[in-house]
Fold:
Amino acid sequence: ESKGYLDVLNAVNSLVNDHQMNIKCVFAGKFMSAVDDTLFGNVVEAEKSFFSFLDTHKLHSYITYLPGLEGDEKARFFLNSHVFLLPSYYLNEGQPVSVLEAMAYGVVPVVTKYRLIPIMVTEQTGFFVNPKSFEDIEKVILYLMNNPKKYAALSKNNIIRYRENFTRQKYVQNL
Structure:
């Protein structure tokens, strides 16, 4: 919950049902509980609620859930993605590698200014949203959809920033 998936879910709902946007969103990762989660005490309840939300709002053709992505499958998803959403406020968040993976493929991150995330993402590579604000996520997605040149510049900047700062060799060198 504190990784922000409910915020993403609500943003997708609004984009699809209020703005009639034809978007695809992939949720990847297992449901887990964390000490800072407030709504769900167990994983089973969280997962049931997620799929119930999809049913209630008729989002099954817009949202795909995968319990995890690895290897070639992960690479394929990044190659076909435009935006990476991680509006985290997770208590034990550090420097999420998934953000760097997205950047390496030119996928534009939409993240919170939380923990070490701002070390990776800048205003030249992505967007910062407030925690627990699906409205912020919605605004950024609408902006990017209506500004393809801005999206293309951010995408290119991500690849450059990743190569200059976060390849395995550069990362070890900086350590």
